[in-house]
């Protein structure tokens, strides 16, 4: 879908992630999930006090639920701290996109070929809300390393992956990004909605999006959408040092990989 007529003022829409409540009426299952979500972006090891504060729960409640989660293998204790348990790794890899015939497995051989051809960091990501979620990463050889990881999130607006997907998304997705505010992670990140929309139009026309040190200083990234029935369901990217980024060569390899993944996804869905 073309983005040429996207409104500059975002329409009203519902948001996920309502404010947490510490009410005693909150189900225990919800509280347990809030504890697990406290680990997102907060570091691998957390103490009870930090978990309780991040989850918005009384310390006694957090301690009680952590004990149950530990017994079930969803968290593990290391001294006075807790880490996410290996049981969650099993569950995470049972998600449909990670199972056999899911997009992650389908894309993996092509991501490997892309890595061999470029020697740079390769990512596969999907759009979730106003963020991208990294499904797979192959770290490049030498140079500056990207601060991304599998399962990690990043604002879609300042990433090539996000812009590649958004350029083939409907107005509601783009409006949500604009309404939430264009996150500026570096001095190169876009803060002007008009310029951002112009870049999406260009990405839609050329079927490739770029991040020129917008997500991380010193890192340039190019991304191409993975298409299915005229919409972008994911994107694949190549990232590397701004000093040694051959955009023409990388674009050629990226387009070949994205087209191959798209063909396989469409074939498996038929």
TrEMBL record:
Source domain of life: Bacteria
Keyword NADP in record: no
Polar residues composition bias: residue spans: 1-11
Domain IclR-ED: 87-270
Keywords carried by this UniProt record: DNA-binding, Transcription, Transcription regulation
Region (Disordered) residue spans: 1-27
SUPFAM superfamilies: GAF domain-like, Winged helix' DNA-binding domain
Protein name: IclR family transcriptional regulator
């Amino acid at each position: 879908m073309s983005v040429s007529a996207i409104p500059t003022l975002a329409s009203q829409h519902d948001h996920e992630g309502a404010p947490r409540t510490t009410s005693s009426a909150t189900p225990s299952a919800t509280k347990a999930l809030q504890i697990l979500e406290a680990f997102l972006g907060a570091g691998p090891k957390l103490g009870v006090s930090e978990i309780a504060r991040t989850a918005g729960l009384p310390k006694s409640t957090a301690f009680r639920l952590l004990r149950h989660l530990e017994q079930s293998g969803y968290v593990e204790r290391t001294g006075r701290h807790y880490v996410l348990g290996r049981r969650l790794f099993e569950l995470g890899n049972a998600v449909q996109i990670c199972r056999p015939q899911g997009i992650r497995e389908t894309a993996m051989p092509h991501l490997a070929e892309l890595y061999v051809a470029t020697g740079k960091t390769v990512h596969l990501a999907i759009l979730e809300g106003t963020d991208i979620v990294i499904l797979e990463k192959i770290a490049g050889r030498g140079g500056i390393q990207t601060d991304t990881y599998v399962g990690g999130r990043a604002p879609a607006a300042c990433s090539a992956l996000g812009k590649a997907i958004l350029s083939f998304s409907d107005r509601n997705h783009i409006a949500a990004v604009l309404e939430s505010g264009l996150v500026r992670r570096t001095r190169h990140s876009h803060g002007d909605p008009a310029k951002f929309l112009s870049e999406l139009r260009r990405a839609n026309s050329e079927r490739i999006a770029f991040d020129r040190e917008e997500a991380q200083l010193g890192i340039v990234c190019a991304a191409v959408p993975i298409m299915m029935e005229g919409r972008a369901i994911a994107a694949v990217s190549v990232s590397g040092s701004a000093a040694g980024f051959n955009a023409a060569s990388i674009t050629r390899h990226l387009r070949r990989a994205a087209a191959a993944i798209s063909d396989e996804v469409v074939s498996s869905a038929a």
